Amino acid sequence: MNDFTPTEYKLLCVATGREFEDAGWTLEDAQCCCPSLVRAVYSAKQLTVRPELEFYRFADWLPVHRILEGSAAPVTYRSVGLAAHLGLENLYITFNGYNPMIDARMTTCSFKETEAYSVCARIPEGEERVLVVASAGNTARAFAKVCSDNKIPLLLCVPADNLDALWFDKPLSSCVKLIATEKGSDYFDAISLSAKALKSRHFYNEGGAKNVARRDGMGTTFLSATTTIGRIPDYYFQAVGSGTGAIAAWEANMRLIEDGRYGSHKAKLVVSQNAPFVPMFDAWRADSREMLPYDDYRARRDAEIIDAKVLSNRRPPYGLAGGLYDALKDTDGEVMVVTNAAARKAGQLFERLEGVDIHPAAAVATASLIKAVESGSVDKSAVVMLNITGGGERCYKSSRREIHTLTPSAVFRIDATEEDVVAAVEKLFGFESEQ
User: Fold this and answer.
1) Class in CATH terms, 75-110+213-396
2) Model confidence pTM above 0.85
């Protein structure tokens, strides 16, 4: 769009407070001697919302250089059905997915689109290397759509057990390739596979939680809620695998306080995990900044048991400066645990009362809200934001004539050598092997 002017920003190291320029794809402060996130500090201190730019309506607080085609924004609305059922006077649902009744149009049906449209719009012009993204499923689907539509070379790394998440409404461009880890592996194994591919100079790391574009993209859910409600919520409910979305909400909250028009308080972060995969809950309950030991075999087994596979991150950005531990401490937050049975029941209740199906992770968040209300820990008059991170998939698929899947070009054992992985992925993209 010709009238789009990117906002100026600098990067800030959370641990030291040092501000510095973004070199183009900076993921951390090279001068910092401890684990720390960096944050974007925008020149625009007050947010101007531009609905005509779809997702990029929040571009004042996004580290992007351009507008990509095909985006959609989160939709926040005041709940009637679920609110009445729970006795909540001010329950607002931020819906990330597909639901024509509220004009929600994320065709991957997941809030991972908010990450992909932000990250990919941060890529510097003229970048010739291949972007590498490791995912448990929904992130891969979102990045595949955005990169395919905008002809951005992409290598996806996904566990074989999660490949059913790789569905699309049309065939993808050949610029998108997929590799997988063997059956019985998990998201951490996919991350390890991506690290091996990144040993080739032809590929570069998306960065996950360290990428300010990913976090600020996810933060648009909180911006959607606050600008719709007219004030910062009192509570923020979300299911978490890495906790990046909750960190993003916390960071957006601080920008909104600086904006000055939406209140001066911080929303209480209430995040939830799907039992038995609960490493962040265990660490938080022990008041430990460090993650507790989690045996590889047990972690893979627990990840296989849970319904919400996307919540199975073994190495989340929890203890580093600016991570989830700090976010929870700063907001007097809480970590909850939800069983498969409770999540399934909550998902069915949401569909009956709100009229649309939701993903298992969103059902986990809904179940945690129900649990919190039943325990009396949420004031019935409080302004509550429920982040529905994915939904409308059945609705969307039923409206399509055909659904396409992405098949992996190669499946690797978890002990595959770096040399074998590099050779295979370079061949996939037509690079001449340098080994």
Assistant:
1) alpha beta
2) yes
